[in-house]
Amino acid sequence: MLVENAVMPQPEQAKAFFFGEENGPMVMVNLLKFKDKAEYPDGSNADWTGKQAYLVYGAAVQKCLEMVGGRAVFSGDVTGLILGEVEELWDMVALAYYPSPQAMMQMVGLPEYQGIEIHRFAGLKGQLNIRTAPGMMPA
Fold first, then answer.
1. CB atoms < 10 A from the CB of 68, how many?
2. For the chain, which domains are there?
């Protein structure tokens, strides 16, 4: 199995994701890999790690999730692997609930989201986003 982290989806991936047949509630599984050092275009926060930059984004994105009817479900550091093999573990896993793929698309278009996305780009080396169809929703 080929695993390739990315920071942005390819256009054909985005089109299939947002305009495909699956349009109900979803929980996005985010497997996150951070840069050793945050990389801001203006050189600011040069002493931050990639994780520190991403955590600024993670704290602020919760408001954006709520604005579209979503919510953060879980986040935690990856601490080990018991089954399977990968060349390199992800650094963190985050789960986010969205009422639909369209809600996610609406969120990334919000001015509030676009104002915090710089921290995501500064901190992320790459990630996998996996859409899941929730069977039983947590309270």
1. 20
2. 35-132 (3.30.70.100)
